[in-house]
């Protein structure tokens, strides 16, 4: 059930029901229907009065605003951070090799499976692998 903005909502712990109430106006009495309609815009607050078209329009507006907010957030993140491919290229220019956790784990597994590795190297590879797997 949709609840109008500004309503008081509570959970009745004895019955487990959620209850909602429109707030009282400043003069102590509850708002009249006209005052509520003026405050809430052109939306009628009676649950039986919403048509399917009104609900579809409201949902479409919500989706549009959500998409706009998501795009704005993505643009904000893009301004703050650079793609990993660009970072790898810049590190290569500085002669610094940047490895991802996945690449490191593949090397550790190959070191563990290698017959040329000593027992101490295999144990060290397992300890290091445990650290990276724990992060994942």
Summarize the structure.
One of its GO terms (cellular component) is endoplasmic reticulum. This protein has 136 residues and is mainly alpha-helical. The chain has helices spanning 33-40, 52-80, 84-93, 101-113, 119-135, and strands at residues 8-11, 18-21.
Task: Draw up the topology in text.
Elements: E1 8-11, E2 18-21, H1 33-40, H2 52-80, H3 84-93, H4 101-113, H5 119-135
Antiparallel strand pairs: 1-2
Helix pairs in contact: 4-5
Biased composition (Basic and acidic residues): 31-42
GO biological process, one term: protein transport
Organism: Psophia crepitans (common trumpeter)
Q: Any overview of this molecule?
A:
A two-stranded antiparallel sheet has the order 1-2. It has five helices and two strands; from the N terminus they run ββααααα. Among the domains are: 47 residues; 35 residues, no CATH class. Strand 1 and strand 2 form a beta hairpin. The protein is elongated.
């Amino acid at each position: 059930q949709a609840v109008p903005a500004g309503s008081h909502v509570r959970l009745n712990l004895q019955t487990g029901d959620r209850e909602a109430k429109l707030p009282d106006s400043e003069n102590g009495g509850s708002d009249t229907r006209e005052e509520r309609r003026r405050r809430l815009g052109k939306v009628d607050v009676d649950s039986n009065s919403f048509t399917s078209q009104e609900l579809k329009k409201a949902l479409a507006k919500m989706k549009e605003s959500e998409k706009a907010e998501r795009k704005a957030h993505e643009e904000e993140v893009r301004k703050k951070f650079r793609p990993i491919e660009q970072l790898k290229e810049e590190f290569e220019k500085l002669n610094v090799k940047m490895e991802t956790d996945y690449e490191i784990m593949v090397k550790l597994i190959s070191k563990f499976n290698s017959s040329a590795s000593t027992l101490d190297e295999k144990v060290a590879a397992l300890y290091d692998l445990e650290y990276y797997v724990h992060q994942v």
